[in-house]
Amino acid sequence: MNYFSSIFSELASSRRNQSSDRGLSEAPATTSSSCTADKRAVLPPSARPVFHLSPTLPWYSKVREIYKESCFIWQFDDYGPPIRLAYPATVLKHSIFTKANLTILFDGSKRINQHPSCKAHSTYLDCIQESATHVLLILCGLNFGTMGHQILIFNFIDAGLVDKKLPFTVEDLQRVGLTFYASQVFIAEQSMLNPKYLSEGAFITVADQEYIPVVGARDASYGVPFKSGFRDSSGESLRRFGIKLRQPPSEAFRHQLKELSTILRDHRHLASIHSTFCQLGDITIIFNSAEAICNLSYILRDGKNVAFPAWNPLGLARRTAITTKWFQCLANTVFDMHGHGFYHPCFTPRSVLITRSFDVLVIGFGLTTERAEVGRYTPPEQYIAGPTSSTSPQADIYSLGLIFMEILALRWYGVHFRRKWEKWVKNKQRLQNPHWKRSRSAYFYGKNPEWLVEYIDECFIQNTQAPPETGNKTPDTLDIIAGLVKRMVTVELGDRPEAGEVKVEMDRIQGSI
Fold this sequence. Notes:
It is a single chain. By secondary structure, this protein is α+β, with helices and mostly antiparallel strands. The protein folds into 4 domains: 105 residues, no CATH class; 84 residues, no CATH class; 85 residues, Phosphorylase Kinase, domain 1, CATH 3.30.200; 221 residues, Orthogonal Bundle (Transferase(Phosphotransferase), domain 1), CATH 1.10.510.10. It has 18 helices and 11 strands. Strands 3-7-8-6-5-4 form a 6-stranded mixed beta sheet. Strands 9-10-11 form a 3-stranded antiparallel beta sheet. A hairpin with a 2-residue loop joins strand 7 and strand 8. Helix 12 runs antiparallel to helix 14 and helix 12 packs antiparallel against helix 18. It is elongated and about 90 Å long. The termini are far apart. The N terminus is likely disordered.
């Protein structure tokens, strides 16, 4: 195990013992008799870097350590690897590029103690310390091979490209010897020196040469909730859920978001908005969901998932009470939002967050009038209208019916219901076409609407006995809920019940238990 593997291992180990609301990990400092580093200034725990520089290490390793250990380390997930988040200002202020470290770093170069062409009365060593530590830090991150780019710091100083001139252009960087590809990476890295932090209620625009320290947003799918981690303006590390939208930040949208924020803040089963930022034409909304420990998809897919161990020990009676309550809470939430004229762009189990007390929080209502990309819970009419179809109350009812069906199936068949549906579809397809080849989209509910209704009949209405291997008992309200679900997922929009009817039925069921 190399040095960094041991550091990351200790990071992950320490994170499991910390509170789940703390995302920023402090890696332990390393002491060594061979360490040739000046004594560091005392920094707050959240900004204190690990520093270890040994003259016995290969040249390339020294550069990587300087680069990596000068960054915040975000332990986003207890079971995942640490993630570099941003350059902390405190580390840059108390520069780790001391004379001793620079002497080791440029041990193979005779230029470090020579006079630069642009400043006759100082050495390159003095110039780096006085005005080019930020530039050198970025160059230390551009090592794509054994020959590091940090040696180009001498060219930067000669060309007058120092810290106060940041940010640089591609033309500036190519003029001092960087390739086009390395220049692109440099430009991306230099933005981390200019971070913008989120604060409660903020709506900010992040320019090309600015950095927003939010983990998870870059690779998120449009309209689909994702798990995020970030540091706010106070420096606190937070874990939240967010949604990314392909939408420009117009004044009309900001006004709608302000109106929506008021509604969300006063609703028990809707997560309120923490902050919003716009970057590269996309809008990302972060929700106040600190109490959420997972989304509903985790429980439906695998009740024993390590990400949600609290669900597994619950007894059958407790699970039945919880899931019955979920029916009522979700029905009431959809009814309330439809009453305000807000609909959901992608209503799926991932939009339903589960709290520590097994309550539900829904995110995503009213954010956009455009439906998200097609998926397992997409209504059949969207396959006709295309991916840019508008949100509608009928689409929400269809998606809510599918969520109800999967919750019901969890109580009835357990976590293997999805595989049962896929096997059923595969058998149907091969009866029609023996050469049929499966695909991921072939099992989407909306692509097989008639079969779905037939499947609900067979699995929930005609079948009155739970599978023996599940050990479940027949839910008292099974036939009522299954009959309602069958109407909710019908192909004809006019035949689907309205949110008010679904709410009344679920309130009646909850009241009869």
